[in-house]
Amino acid sequence: MASISIKTEDDIKGMRIAGRLAAEVLDFIQPHVKPGVTTAELDRLCHDYMKNVQGTIPAPLNYCPPGYTPFPKAICTSVNDVVCHGIPGDKVLKNGDVVNIDITVIKDGYHGDTSRMFFVGEPSILARRLTDITFECMWLGISRIRPGAHLGDIGFVIQQHAEKAGYSVVREFCGHGIGKVFHEEPQVLHYGRPGTLEKLQAGMIFTVEPMINAGKRDIREMGDGWTIKTKDRSLSAQWEHTVLVTETGYEVLTVSAGMPPPPAIIQNTAPQSITA
What we know:
Structural class: alpha+beta
């Protein structure tokens, strides 16, 4: 089993800054997500904001893990039945679409990684419910984070909540450790059994980013080598935060003024751990 890095105080300070900046890109782009805009225009706006306003670097641009071709854009835009890694292009967003925008910035060597769901115009009842349940799934997983807990505890509560609502959890993609490296140990599965997998320790930093499908969990990879869609063409949703394990619980690092507040099922449990 690969070792999981424990971040220093300097690392944590750097990750707080990178996390806030990533979240602020999502704040910035929100008013631009509307019918008639292309995903390429959203990418252009975000890239310009990162480079010229924040002084950050978009981590996805030219990112090339083994077996892949370089990712050609600064952000991921996953629309409707796209599960993850949608490449911005000439797709025009229309009323009723839902889109996940996934942002990772690099600031002073540290990675901030977060994503949100956006409604284009007025969403369907199904899309709104799937988005809300997925948001709850993410926060329920985060709420289990504390020293001595296990990664399996996170996956278990996410899977239970999604499947109780009649949805399915994508298995092929998961959360990940993050710091000066974009993707590192541990892998954070969004399904599993409590009390299993690695035990959490203060100083670990990783993402929680469940991908929940309205239909079956099966996926298919598109010809570009990056875009992942649901096999049955059902809607998919995802939310993501980067989280630090603290001495007493957790701290969400990807916070900003425009960040959606935790859902009601979380707000009464540990509100002090939400602000960085």
